[in-house]
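Aim 2, interim progress. The first record below pairs a target sequence with its structure tokens.
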Amino acid sequence: MSAPVTTSTFSKDNPFPAKITENRLLNKAGSAKETRHFVVNLGDSGLHYKAGDSLGVFPTNRPTEVAEILERLGATGDELVSPAMLKLPAPLSLREVLSHRLALGSPTAKIINTFFAKATDAGEKAKLETLLKPEAKDQLAGYLDEREYVDLLAEFPSAKLTPQEFVDHLRKLMPRLYSIASSSKVYPNDIHLTVAIVRYTTNHRERHGVCSTFMADRVRINETPAPVFVSNSHFGPPEDTTKDAIMVGPGTGIAPFRAFVQDRVAAGATGRNWVFFGDQKSHTDFLYQEEWENYLAKGQVTHLDLAWSRDQILKVYVQDKMREKGAELWSWLNNGGYFFVCGDAKRMAKDVDVALHDVIAQHGGMTAELAVEYVKQMKKDKRYQRDVY
């Protein structure tokens, strides 16, 4: 089935100022995580989406961080600047570019060079010189990794930068993409998101994920506009609704599979659904528990396999559950079933990929080499799809 033709004038270059109409915590009391469910209203935007697509959100930076940067620069915020990378038709106020246009994190070695050239305090100069030595490359990378631009302004106060000099070191503030957690067949005017709110500490400072805390803390329900656009994806449920779908999505990786199942149920798909979900603790981190149990009770989800890493001494992950159910997993695949993975690219997706190869080799009676070929063919046939980040 082809996607609906987008008639909307809204896009990444012209985002729609959407309203967030719901913001609720999905984890229960005692969880180590903060995962939130957001409902973004598309209003009269004309935006369309399909299961598997992502929503791009343009955040703003935290006002407290902007205020501290202005103070440390000795600026009012009214100074006009024209950051080179923004290619602005006319200068904007420093406060505007720091709030809405530029990223305040991930400093590069370039700013350390600038500070070294500008610092007048001997102690600061010596520290900067040490960091810039060729043999200190790894030390510098680790140092920068722990800091944001505001930390550097605090550490090297004798290096006076003009507002323009400072903004020329900053990168563009980019939109963040989130897998859509709803089906337009069920929610044509809303987009649901499942977002892990990022909060942590480095260099004795509290850090806040720019976009996740923008939505969690700074957007006022039904009031603050959140600029959004739909990002079309090649990731999506089987077009042939008679085909079975195996979905592996631990943590917030469950988002697109909530959309897939909604979509397939609404379309009256006869193919079976098998969901693998995992998180830390069953009693605090079972995202959308009632919905999944309801699907299971109605037979709309055939299997729901759950992996809890912190409920017992030995950690259990989704790939362990796959191996446990290897024989049946192979029978679904051998019958033309589709296999989907969403979530962390660094570890989970790799571990799931290894488990998939192992299951195919073991239960399909194949050598490791033949299992590799089988998986390659699945990818060619779009029967193995990944949405990893």
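The second target in this work package is listed in the same format:
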Amino acid sequence: MTTTDRVADPSRLLTWHPGWLGVVLGTGGAAVASLSDPVGSTDLDTWLGIAFTAMAVVLLPVLAVPYLLRARRHRHAVAADLTHPGVGALFGTLPASLLIVGLALAMLAVQGRLPATATAWTALALMLVGAVGALLVGVEFFSRIVRAEQTPPAAMSGAWFIPIVVLVLVPSVVVRLAVLEPSWATTGAVLGASAAWGAGFVLFLVLAPVLAWRLATASAPPPHMAATWWIWLAPAGAGGLGALALSRLTARVVGGPLADALPVAGLLLASALWGFGTWWAIFAGRVLARLARDNRGLPFHVGTWGFVFPTAAMSALTVELGRSWDVPLVSVIGTVWWVACVLVWVRVAIQTWSGVRRGTIFSR
């Protein structure tokens, strides 16, 4: 998506958008959705998942370098962005991209397409760094929001979910690490996965009413913030997947009478979150359709990648629920979600490449 010359450009580093790693987050999300086997009758989805994973692995260091260089050379600009209520939360795409790439790699290893031990250690490292990074970014961003004298409602958006909700991905990684390395399936792993999921999802429950109040009482977000309507699907999809993974991991480690009850409880909770995500998708879809019609389309920028991961998360959750409940209709809906995810990724990727070639995407 970029070149060494462009990364070395001081002015471009100075204004480097905090949301660039949303490209990796979206691509990794598309990989996870594809590797969930949404089309059981063909290997096309699996091969696409492998391709998406490879792209995410390559793009992760390429797009992370400018963040590191900017933090070293332009600390004041980074601090200003982190304090900004509109873009500060987008720094959360950095730890989120680490977690989603770790999850995609772990899924490939479980399927026997990557060496188990080496991949397990790699995914573990990505997960740990991602979880710690999410903790640091989330605490720092919201501490600055609390210290601010006043946060304008127009700056509040679903992007605020990114640095905290990403923690719900941890159980999805851990449950696969337990398969790859059975000795890692310990009560400590359950405790850590539970704490991460609880932090991410409970904070979502705390933050959601605040953002819902903003949508209900303030003026509608402008067209360039269209993706923030769709981001609400991410906590539902990723949170549901995390609930399923956590319940299955706990049942495996604890055993006994809970071994039968916990997966059912996790399945019910995931189904409830899927219901919320489905309702919100219909609602947000209607809002976005009207917004696009009134403005003759939606503007494109780096934040447009915010449409990809939520779609991927709902796709993966729907596929998993269709398989777990053995309801063919839900499985078909999961396939539809997956097709939508791939199409959205293709469109946004083409727009991104066009913006990179013309240099327009680097301006704020």
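The longest helix spans residues 258-294. This observation will shape the mutagenesis plan for the next reporting period.
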